[in-house]
Write a structure and sequence with these properties.
- The chain is an alpha+beta fold.
- It folds into two domains: 2-55, SH3 type barrels (Roll), CATH 2.30.30; 66-280, Fumarylacetoacetate hydrolase, domain 2, CATH 3.90.850.
- It has helices at 32-36, 74-83, 146-149, 165-171, 175-178, 224-232, and strands at residues 2-8, 11-17, 23-26, 48-49, 54-55, 66-70, 101-105, 110-111, 127-128, 131-137, 153-160, 163-164, 184-192, 202-207, 210-216, 242-244, 266-271, 275-280.
- Strands 1, 2, 3, 4, 5, 6, 7, 8, 10, 11, 13 and 16 form a twelve-stranded mixed sheet that branches. The protein has a four-stranded antiparallel sheet with strand order 15-14-17-18, with no helix packed on it.
- β2 and β3 (23-26) form a beta hairpin.
- The relative contact order is 0.21.
Length: 282
Amino acid sequence: MRFATVEYQGKTFVGAVDKAGEKVTPVSAGDINDLFRGNRGEPKGQAIALASVKLKAPVPLPLRNIMCVGKNYHEHAKEFSASGFDSSSTGAADAIPTAPIIFTKVPQSVIGPDEPIRYPTGVSEQLDYEAELAVIVGRGGRGISKADALKHVWGYTIINDVTARDIQGRHKQWFLGKSMDTFAPMGPWAVTADEVDLATAGIRCWVNGELRQDARIADLIFDIPTLIETISAGITLLPGDIIATGTPAGVGIGFKPPKFLNRGDVVAMEVDGIGRLSNQVR
């Protein structure tokens, strides 16, 4: 099933989105976190045309954290190492990580579908995009094994891990350049785990209609069970926690010369089984 957080006639509520992506039906949940904790989300009202509501980020604040994974597709790890922005690598010999690289984005960077990505005037001039499949934790836990990890996944959504590359390079770490206001577009909705076939699903990104990223989720270096086992080894995961699994090759710094984002650019991304997330830089 697909669940959205929507605003309609001055009220915000959770609704189930139909297969055609045309209607949303309110469900019995205080917010979407109730669903992550096990509420089945029974219908409680009439269906509303999706075109008449405002889609918000599916997982509302307060989020505890957005846990992210760096260099988790082989070709992206190589392009990142070759770009000169990778402070975690000394060259081609260690371009591919031997253990998951985990960092975080502040939750306050989250925005919803069609909300503007703020161009950070005076702070950065090298704005980049990263299409990512995001895992939504359902059943929490600590010390989760790979064998049991997918039992703890409620579902998935899409995140654009927007990055200020010059900030990332200058500070030799990833937090500041990835946590600016509006740097985590999320959506268009959250889907239950059965909606995404991890073995076959593709992930794609376009900038102004030009296809930039095109890969399969199965191409991850460290798969979702490995990520959950790694993070939960010492950190208790909670319902609603978000794990952004990494981006494939084709980001702006992978081109020669780099293709950074400018005001007016529209970034759209899709994951099979979820939908399409689009935002404009302003």
